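Model it.
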Amino acid sequence: MDPIEYERRRAFCETVKTMTRPECIEIARILRKHGATMSENRSGLFFDMTKIPGPVFEELLKFHEFVKKNSQELAKRDRLMDTLGHPAVSSSGSSSGSSSGSAGSQAKAPAHSSM
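Modeled.
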């Protein structure tokens, strides 16, 4: 493996350490889908990044870019909602039940959900 590719993979390993549990579960799904050798215990999921084939590694990078872009979009949406003075609304549309006239009956949805 050339030094540039090794550095890309090392940097990705550092990124994985900061991912949320649902994101790590998706990484595991991608690896399992491609038959990568892994071990798992209470400390986490372990795999040899140097043995991951190039196309699988590219899929992992693509997933990371999706997560990063999604996170940026959610943060942008939250800032916009804060600017407008509205609480964050869940994608299921929590407008139902608001016609009862009770201002305290509507719960504020969390800005980011963790599966």
